[in-house]
Backbone:
């Protein structure tokens, strides 16, 4: 009886160690737990968003389809836009894009 | 005697291997995420925000809040111990909701994670890392959904890339209650836009106006606006770059009032934006921020295919 109990406890102990080892190598993802760069609690983002003080000139929406690109001063405003941006500006000939206007097709 | 002991050890490790396999399988079983597009399409729209996932400690609370606010319905996608819910608008999947334990540290908060389409996750990772980004969760394949990976840009904004195995959703105007827009709110629009342009080949337009205190950039692909990059508003407090996604609403003021009545908070009061419509920023009861945006489609000229 004692021998059986000892055998069972060894099995449980060994299973637990193997499961822990398996957990350590599990790939991160929705089910993973080994997220890097301090993301050990999942995909919660770093806190620190502060809102409530957007000035009236703080715009986030896309332009309307009829907006003229030339209406935006862009890089011609020193101090607000760098004269030599790190990004590659869209060619001057390209129209200012907006959102798609096509409605979602209805299922038949 | 030695032979008996050896046989017993083999038995122990045999049972242990089977038990651990069951345990590991239960823990690591992948979610069966549904395809992004049904029926599948060959269309790929790199640079387009094609999906969002909410990571929340209160799944039931989130379902109640978003169904009351936008009329979303939900379908449970369970696998093992993991809880994932598909949010639908008029039968059309628009978001995922993932249950996670409450953040242990105040430095973390629930958020909507933005997924941007790529043709090749490995190539996106290579470029992102070369340009100063970080891999937060290595790429993972979901059989029907495709391959995805979570990254952070050099300024720290978290986003995900998705190589959909069913193609990308078509470019259509979002219905009220659906996601319509995304903004990168960052500490450096100039460097940030260059980073995202390197990965997604965006056309970048400077749409700063004479009255703007800060630089505004527009990121576009395939002739459509995909996102704006905005510098963080000036504020002495702590700021973190992030992506903010907007839901199209008919009336931002009424929706903002509803946010409060459902237990959420209004972070930026409704106010007119450059398109003439109102925008606002709200947080759900768990604190995850999202935007509200009015958009008039009276000028619609395109015809449904």
Residues:
């Amino acid at each position: 009886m004692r021998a059986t109990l000892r055998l069972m406890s060894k099995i449980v102990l060994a299973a637990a160690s193997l499961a822990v080892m398996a957990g350590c190598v599990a790939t991160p993802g929705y089910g993973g737990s080994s997220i890097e760069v301090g993301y050990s609690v999942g995909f919660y983002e770093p806190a620190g968003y502060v809102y409530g003080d957007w000035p009236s000139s703080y715009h986030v929406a896309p332009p309307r389809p009829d907006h003229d690109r030339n209406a935006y001063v862009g890089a011609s405003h020193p101090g607000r836009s760098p004269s030599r941006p790190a990004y590659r500006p869209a060619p001057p000939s390209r129209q200012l894009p907006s959102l798609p206007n096509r409605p979602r097709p209805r299922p038949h | 005697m030695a032979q008996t002991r050896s046989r017993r050890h083999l038995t122990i490790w045999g049972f242990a291997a089977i038990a651990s396999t069951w345990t590991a399988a239960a823990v690591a079983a992948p979610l069966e995420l549904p395809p992004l597009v049904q029926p599948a399409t060959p269309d790929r729209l790199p640079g387009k925000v094609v999906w969002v996932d909410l990571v929340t400690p209160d799944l039931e609370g989130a379902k109640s809040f978003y169904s009351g606010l936008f009329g979303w319905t939900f379908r449970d996608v369970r696998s093992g111990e993991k809880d994932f819910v598909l949010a639908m608008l008029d039968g059309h999947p628009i978001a995922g909701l993932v249950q996670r334990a409450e953040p242990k540290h105040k430095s973390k908060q629930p958020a909507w994670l933005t997924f941007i389409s790529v043709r090749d996750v490995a190539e996106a990772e290579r470029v992102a890392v070369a340009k100063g980004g970080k891999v937060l969760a290595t790429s993972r394949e979901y059989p029907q959904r495709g391959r995805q990976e979570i990254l952070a840009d050099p300024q720290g904004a978290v986003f995900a890339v998705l190589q959909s195995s069913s193609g990308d959703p078509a470019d259509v105007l979002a219905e009220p209650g659906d996601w319509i827009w995304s903004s990168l709110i960052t500490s450096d629009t100039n460097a940030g836009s260059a980073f995202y342009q390197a990965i997604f080949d965006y056309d970048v337009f400077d749409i700063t106006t004479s009255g703007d205190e800060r630089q505004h950039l527009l990121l576009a692909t395939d002739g459509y606006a995909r996102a704006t990059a905005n510098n963080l508003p000036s504020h002495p407090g702590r700021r973190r770059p992030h992506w903010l996604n907007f839901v199209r609403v008919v009336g931002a003021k009424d929706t903002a009032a509803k946010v409060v009545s459902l237990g959420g908070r209004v972070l930026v009061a409704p106010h007119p934006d450059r398109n003439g419509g109102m925008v606002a920023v709200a947080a759900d009861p768990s604190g995850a921020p999202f935007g509200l945006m009015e958009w008039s489609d009276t000028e619609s000229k395109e015809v449904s295919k």
Remarks:
- The radius of gyration of chain A is 29 Å.
- The longest helix of chain A spans residues 2-25.
- Chain A has one helix and one strand.
- The first strand of chain A starts at residue 45 and ends at 46.
